[in-house]
Amino acid sequence: MRDICVIFDLDGTLVDSEVICIQVLADLLPDCSDPVEHLLQRYRGERLSSIFQDIENRLSRKLPLNFEALYRATLSKRFAQGLQPIPGVLPMLGQLKHPRCIASGGPPDKIIQTLEVSGLAPYFGTDLYSSYEVGSFKPDPDLFLHAARKMGFEPHRCVVVEDSLVGIQAAKAAGMVALLYSPSPPNHPYGADVTFANMEELTTIISSLEG
User: Fold this and answer.
1) In this structure, are strands 128-130 and 5-8 parallel, antiparallel, or unpaired?
2) Which residues pair with 158 in a beta bridge?
3) What single-letter DSSP state applies at residue 34?
């Protein structure tokens, strides 16, 4: 696959943010007694509105009307205090020669803050695509297809790097190569074409797809 475009998920793939996201939820919902690790597995990659709906069902009550605004404001403060890239991401991006972009389920302002705080913004410029702009969320393929069009690539010439089931499903539905980043052995590979545990392996994996 020559002339490959690499489409990156953001949370949990390039930045170590998902634990922070779930910890904020747990802090704001003291009556939600599940351990953070269990919540992380349950909600990895899911749309925020779906997470809130599931929480309401499990708690048998409605969340306050201002809960999303409170959650996002608290999360923004936590990110500013020390959001870090996933280990190996900075060397990998420094070595990666292919066009790349972000395709995230988060809103645009969260994507921008995440990249700026973590130091990853210079590696992506303005090639940032959000489900909130497209109006479609993973596992639907529309976000990845939109990113491919904007980057000027056919779907079969795109490689998606994801850490979640819904992300891998979206990549496969878009007709793209799906790479699953999983630092610990996954319970299930989700149908990914390749599963890897170290971000510094990614450039070698992508090189193996060329030809």
Assistant:
1) unpaired
2) 5
3) S
Cβ atoms of 21 and 117 within 8 Å: the answer is no
Tell me if 9 sits within 8 A of 161, measured CB to CB.
Answer: yes
Q: How far is CA 166 from CA 58, 67, 89, 210, in A?
A: 21, 24, 22, 26
Mind listing the pLDDT tens digit for each residue in 16-52? 988 888 899 999 998 888 888 888 888 887 888 899 9
* Residue that is written with structure tokens 């210079």 in the block: 122
DSSP class per residue in 140-184: SSHHHHHHHHHHT--GGGEEEEESSHHHHHHHHHTT-EEEEE-SS
Distance separating alpha carbons of residues 89 and 175, to the nearest angstrom: 25
Question: DSSP class of residue 105?
Answer: S
C-alpha–C-alpha distance, residues 143 and 211, integer Å: 26
**Run of H or E including 139:** none
**Helix 48-59 and helix 67-80: axis angle, to 10°?**
120
The model carries a pTM of: 0.89
Average pLDDT, the chain: 92
Name the token pair of 111: 């994507």
Helices 36-43 & 48-59 angle (0-180, nearest 10) = 130
